[in-house]
Amino acid sequence: MHQNGSIYLSVDLVQPERANLKIRSAKKKQLHYAWVVASVTFLILLVTAGVRATPGVLIVPLESEFGWTSASISTAIAINLALYGLIGPFAASLMERLGLRRITLMALSLLAIAVGLTTLMTRQWQLILLWGICVGSGTGFTATVLSAVVMNRWFEKNLGVVLGALTAAGATGQLLFLPLMARVVERSGWRLMALGVSGAAIIVFLIVLWLMRDNPSDVGLVPYGATDKPDADHSAEPMLRPLAALRLASRSSAFWVLAGSFFVCGASTNGLIGTHLIAACHDYGIPEVRAAGLLAVMGIFDIFGTTASGWLSDRMPSRYLLLAYYCLRGLSLIYLPHTLANGHSGLNWFAIFYGLDWVATVPPTVRLVTDCFGRVNTGVIFGWVAAAHQLGAALAAVGAGLIRTRAGDYHDAFWIAGGFCFLTGISFLFAARSLRGRIDPSISSAQPVTT
User: Fold this and answer.
1) Which residue in 76, 219, 333, 419 has a CA-CA distance of 20 to 30 Å to 357?
2) What is this structure's pTM?
3) Whole-angstrom distance, CA of residue 449 vs CA of residue 451
4) Domain extent listing, the chain
5) Burial of 343 by CB count in 10 Å (0-12 exposed, 13-18 middle, 19+ buried)?
6) Best-predicted range by mean pLDDT (153-157, 329-333, 435-439)
7) Contact between 382 and 148 (Cβ < 8 Å)
8) If you ran DSSP here, which 8-state letter would residue 449 be given?
9) Integer Cα distance of 89 and 347 in angstroms
10) For residues 110 and 61, is the Cβ–Cβ distance under 8 A?
11) What is the CATH number of domain 33-216+239-442?
């Protein structure tokens, strides 16, 4: 009996262990739901970025139909860009409290309604209300902050690659759809194009309703790459509220280095090239569809550039990456007026190069935010850094429009932006000490803690 009992006992102990091994092996073979959420997020960012970029196609048609100036149309675009950035920190906080699925659905509903109503506008204040305030607010909730929140909730490894791909979606969407929108405007008018954009937002709404989930625990999982048990200390640490996060971050020189550099990034991408390149090409007799095609090329190469930047940010010091990105972007902008004046082949090379560098700055910037402020607060503090990005974009959108209205071209706008980009890149040579400090939110005095 003792011998047989021992045999039975050993079988009882071994069988559950074999079952657990089989379960773990089956889980490894299954696609982790984090990749489904990442794919849905990629689609959200792709389409909503296309919505946000639509005014770039509307400048010339609205000038022709209503007689509005570039400066007046750029004002609505500037409001759009500013709200897109300023809402980001509050979006991160609301996603924490109400769930990213619910917030995303509300944002997509607002976008679909607002863009649809623009087909009825006849006054300039309606452009400001719909494209400036409503679309700016809706896209603000589906901004780059959404990428950071999804990355930190659903992933424990491959963070740089995931963030790079999601960031590329946000930038690529605003460039990739422009040729199609420009062609629809050319053949059928801008109102039909606006209805198509509204319909795209509705389709994404339905996909989010079907597939998006807030947390891995909602589907009985832990984050991709995590151990079987979640990190209790990490999950117990609360995210700072937006204004508290801003007060905390503003005491760190690292925040001002990152926010200042991102201000220049926004000015040189969304605000200047994303908004005004089509109009700048129009001034040189380049057709609108052809100019939008250049932006599409940027969008395609942005996917490779930003994803590669995410890969590099997992392996190289982030400040050296930012040094290279900003300096190369500055040189390309300084040379752009010459490129515009000397034919199409040079513009193709500009589009490829600028696409690779379009938002390659995001992965290393997010990495530095995480290093300086911790993973829990990455979303809300990066939201404030992204707000600086969009404030820079808003200033550049208005400033470039004023320059074109008064000078008749964009030459000065390109040179000014290029100079600031180059100086921003050089500044990272001297920012090592500032980026080594870390703020600990558990310390009431909020003094920097050396890492």
Assistant:
1) 76
2) 0.71
3) 6
4) 33-216+239-442
5) exposed
6) 329-333
7) yes
8) E
9) 36
10) no
11) 1.20.1250.20
